[in-house]
Amino acid sequence: MAPKRKIESAFVLFDVMYVDGTRSSNRKVPALALETLDGDAPAKSIIEAQDREIGAASGRPRPDIRSVSRTPARPQVAKAG
Q: What φ, ψ does residue 52 adopt, rounded to 5°?
């Protein structure tokens, strides 16, 4: 049996820290938006736009973003057997 191919994700996950100290994990950003010379810089503006939509829908605006960083990759666990 051939090994399974790794599926490339259409999204990159980010952790967001807000100025009030709250944190939001695993926020999705389209991978195509990050394929520029700016690196991860476009992620902040994309997440800010997502926050505006969330705030408008819920009636509670999100605080300003302090920092944005990629979510660390999960370590691969070897299967027994």
A: -60, -40
Q: Which residue, among 51, 11, 14, has the nearest Cα to 31 in the 3D structure? A: 11
Q: Is the pLDDT of residue 80 over 90?
A: no
- Number of domains the chain is built from: 1
Q: Which domain holds residue 18?
A: 9-34
Kindly state whether residue 52 falls inside one of the protein's structural domains: no
Burial class from Cβ neighbours inside 10 Å (0-12, 13-18, 19+) for residue 16 reads buried
Share of the chain above pLDDT 70, in %: 84
Q: Is residue 24 part of a domain?
A: yes
